[in-house]
């Protein structure tokens, strides 16, 4: 059983991930990180609007912060996701067309995943196991019971 100690943290992470909109928060934070990286790019097409491009750095930083907040505090996911969509769309004007469109799309997709996440649903693997268990019980109920003393 040497695999046992390695498996426990993975199962704990899987349980933590199932209780929050993990992929939505991750995509929102990655979108903000990508836009921040394009702000530092040494390209001639980089735009800087406002006071030395303050909005170009502020909005992607907010995207990263909102993505992390979704992961840490999933109860406020609706507010974070609506704000994330608005901030992501705002980067179209302030941050190189939303990080050359990639960061903008990651941010909008992550916000939409977060908005659509429902906390009451159980993980898919649990539903599958329960269905398999119910099938096995139905099969066992259909099998004829044979007494141990009677042989045919």
UniProtKB/TrEMBL annotation:
The keyword Transport does not apply. It comes from the Bacteria. Pfam families: DUF6114. Keywords: Membrane, Transmembrane, Transmembrane helix. Residues 126-152 are annotated as: Disordered. The keyword Transmembrane applies. The chain crosses the membrane at residues 21-37, 49-71, 78-94, 100-119. This is DUF6114 domain-containing protein. It comes from Streptomyces albidocamelliae. The lineage of its organism: Bacteria, Bacillati, Actinomycetota, Actinomycetes, Kitasatosporales.
